């Protein structure tokens, strides 16, 4: 279920959309608007979509996004207060997943997440892609050539597998574009992190207006959504899809 053929890409979209929905609900509540009820229900609806897709990646991104949002933007100061709320939220969602009859609960029971991440093909792809990248570290092999060039430059042979991508946007960029492509991307990510901040409480005692605090809360939510998409790109290839990338670009622009 979702706009993309890959269920993990759709669930990733639902995960960072839930953070935006939660932030919008809090903003509406603080403004005295009754829309917070509808927006709060939207978070549960998006979680239901993730469970419907039985996507472990989407579920992990949902946990991560909501935790980051609660820790950095949704609550006032107080480490233990944040820790208690975050722990309660995580335990509640885990309980719902495990006792439900959905397929994601069965998948988590029958195959641990650590085993899914460390499966042989994924590790083999990462190792062979890195080895091939060291042969052309700066210029890469050329954009759009992985499918054709990778079988010629790999060292080991993996039976019964035709690889069209290395299961990682980062490794894909490194293989095809080299460090001359990857390093500017990393610089851009660092600039986005600084631009969408500050993420931590400032030591300045200068009072800020209610509007500026509300704007920072919303921008942080968009920044977290962008960070979730970037985190997903380390272990999957969502940003190589045009539709996902366009939505990611819009969210990132709002964060800036």
Structure overview:
With 256 residues, the chain is mainly α. It is 72% helix and 0% strand. It is built from twelve helices and no strands. Helix 1 runs parallel beside helix 3, helix 7 packs parallel to helix 9 and helix 9 (169-177) packs across helix 10. The mean pLDDT is 81.
What is the overall silhouette? globular
Terminal Cα span: 30 Å
Ranges where pLDDT stays below 50 over 5 or more residues in a row are none
**Sheet/helix structural class:** mainly alpha
Q: Which strand-content bin applies to the residues?
A: under 5%
Helix content: over 70%
Features:
single chain, mainly alpha, 72% helix, 0% strand, globular
Q: Would you spell out the secondary-structure blueprint of this structure?
A:
Layout: H1 7-30, H2 35-52, H3 56-74, H4 79-99, H5 103-110, H6 113-117, H7 120-133, H8 146-153, H9 169-177, H10 179-196, H11 210-235, H12 242-255
Helix pairs in contact: 1-2, 1-3, 1-11, 3-4, 3-11, 7-9, 9-10, 11-12
């Amino acid at each position: 279920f979702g706009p993309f053929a890959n269920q993990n890409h759709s669930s990733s979209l639902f995960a960072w959309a839930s953070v935006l929905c939660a932030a919008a609900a809090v903003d509406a509540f603080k403004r005295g608007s009754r829309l917070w009820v509808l927006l709060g229900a939207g978070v549960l609806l998006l979680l239901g979509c993730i469970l419907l897709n039985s996507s472990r990646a989407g579920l992990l991104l949902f946990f991560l996004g909501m935790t980051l949002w609660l820790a950095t933007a949704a609550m006032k100061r107080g480490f233990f207060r944040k820790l208690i709320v975050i722990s309660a939220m995580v335990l509640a969602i885990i309980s719902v997943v495990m006792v439900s009859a959905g397929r994601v609960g069965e998948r988590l029971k029958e195959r641990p997440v650590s085993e899914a991440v460390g499966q042989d093909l994924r590790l083999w792809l990462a190792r062979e892609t890195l080895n091939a990248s060291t042969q052309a570290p700066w210029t890469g092999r050329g954009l759009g050539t992985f499918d054709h060039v990778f079988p010629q430059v790999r060292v080991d042979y993996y039976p019964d597998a035709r690889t069209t991508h290395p299961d990682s946007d980062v490794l894909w960029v490194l293989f095809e574009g080299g460090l001359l492509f990857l390093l500017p991307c990393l610089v851009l990510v660092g600039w986005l992190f600084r631009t969408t901040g500050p993420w931590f409480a400032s030591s300045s005692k200068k009072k800020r207006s209610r509007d500026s605090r509300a704007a920072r809360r919303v921008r942080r939510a968009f920044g977290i959504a962008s960070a979730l998409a970037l985190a997903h790109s380390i272990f999957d290839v969502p940003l190589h899809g045009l539709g996902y990338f366009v939505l990611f670009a819009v969210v990132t622009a709002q964060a800036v």
